[in-house]
Amino acid sequence: MKEALSYIQATSSILKGRISQRADAELRSWRLLERSRWVLKIIDMAIVGIEVEPIPAYLGDGKRAILVSNYPSVPQTLRAVIKVGCRLPRQKFRLKAIARKEVTAGANVLLKALGVDQLIFPALKDQSGKYVLEPESLKKVLAHLEGQENVLWLSITGKTRGNGLLERDVRTGAAFFSLKKKIPVVPMGLVTKEKRGEISIVRVRFGEPINPPEVGELSEFEMGDFLLDISRLIMCKVALLLPVGQRGDFEDVEDKFREIRSRLNAY
To answer: Which CA distances in Å does 155 have to 74, 99, 136, 141, 174?
Structure first.
């Protein structure tokens, strides 16, 4: 009798697992963000509470760009990025993002239905605690940037504390891709509002594009410093899009901006 019960329980567990897998696969197959323009408009309308400035001409149809923003929280930032992607001119969804692998692995029902696993290049945490792209993911990012109308989003920091502008946590990925593919970086400011201890993104703003500068031959050490300075410049540009009190480590952004510009002029 005990053996029969154990068999029934094991069979039930297997069946539940298979049903769950089928349902999960069905949800992921919908890929709503890859469907027609009217579907994107519906998704845009469904993401409420976030005001998006008019999409600037340098993010228009046929324009490649690397969108870089602050990083208030994972779910809030993802909502804002999807809403911006829905508004980019073009019949198809042009935007893909670099984000933590957990975003796709732990995606909820809605994100699965949107097809988020096809729109995110997963970054993995290495032994030092930094998020990095595996070689295959890096190839896919570079291939995406080859598309004449494609847009890539990534954050300028890796941690989601406060509004996300943490000087010691600066990420150089945007600067690297910009120089590698000769694509401008477009700063994007995610303005937040705190209510009952929770932070919500209420507005998305866009800054002027930062075109990749021409540089001569640099050693590996010099290139590392150069990418860091470019990344801090991007941070300054993002900070200028945020109200005072939401700039994190960049409240004195004007002073930092002058300092970084002088450093860059030395190259």
So the answer is: 10, 8, 20, 15, 8
Residue carrying the six token digits 């470019």: 230
Per-10-residue mean pLDDT for the chain, 267 residues long?
43 44 67 84 93 96 94 91 93 90 81 86 78 90 92 88 82 93 96 87 97 78 87 94 92 90 76
Sequence-distant (6+) residues with CB within 8 A of 224 are: 172
Beta bridge mates, 99 = 122
Query: Which pTM does this prediction carry?
Result: 0.87
DSSP secondary structure letters along 154-223: EESBS--STTS--GGGB--HHHHHHHHHT--EEEEEEEEEEETTEEEEEEEEE---BPPPP-----HHHH
